[in-house]
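Quick one before lunch.
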Amino acid sequence: MSRPPHIAIVTPAFNETAVLPQLFARLTAVFDAHPDVAWHAVLIDDGSRDQTAALIEAQCARDRRFKLVALSRNFGFQNALAAGLAQCGGMDAVVTMDADLQDPPEIIPEMVAAWRNGAEVVLAVRRSRQEGGLRRVGFDLFHRLFGSLVDIRIDRNTGTFGLLGRDALATFNQLPEVHRFFPGLRSWVGFPRAEVYYDRLERAAGAPAQSFRRLVRYALDGIFSFSHLPLRMLTYAGLGVAGIGFAIGVFFIVRRLLGIEVAQTGFTTLVTLVLFLGGVQLVGIGVLGEYLGRIYDEVKRRPNYVIKRRVGFD
Ligand code: UDP
Ligand code: MG
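Model of the uridine-5'-diphosphate complex:
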């Protein structure tokens, strides 16, 4: 290569004042240690309510390799990430990572090396995960469920952290969907892949900004946008219940025709059946609703984010 490759680090930040100074220092150290690459860091302020935007802006003034994209309000991690990636059109590659230093910037050069060896998509795979308790159980459960429901491959130990080459990025930026599940889409785009390994630490400071509710919604986005199996399961359940109903019907009709007396009791049975079938139908409607709501969001064609301000872009 005659000119150095141009690589952008894309990092959404939401109320991350406590970690930003460390993030800047560690990114700068990585950049300075690898002058054979032209670096950029694109930080997206996802409508933070603290000094996040101001801190990033000050860093942009100090170091022209840092850039700020400020969104008009909090649009959520996925949309903030999409906003950042959309600003990286001319880059040779982009690295996606969290702001909280759970993704150590020090392994970025390894990802770049893997990319230079021909990989278009590089995944950072966690050797260990130090989250405990409910979150951990939730992540494990989701990955098991997701793995059994969808066709595309999602490595259990990958998250946002990774690298996309120019072609993968262009494909990604063209995807029109509103409900974005980044690991799924990254797997969907294809291209030669490589993996690098790292140890995932606790966040450097501050508290996790992603509420549990958001994570659940994100997990549902993952499942419903990559699988029709919930719908198919409804069909099968319907067929099963209808089949059983038909058999029972035939049984009673035959008894009646043969003149075998049908007992007039059965209140408990009826109540149980009505409630059970009512419940099954409501669950079915709920599953349909999950798809319907997502279809509605997609057809509205509303943009995924609104940019308020950009700093450091020429
Ligand atoms: N984040 C964001 N918008 C949000 C919530 C989070 O941009 O609405 C960013 C946050 O600043 C961090 C990353 O997304 O850089 C991951 O968030 P967090 O650490 O809370 O999630 P977790 O590590 O628990 O998945
Ligand atoms: Mg985190």
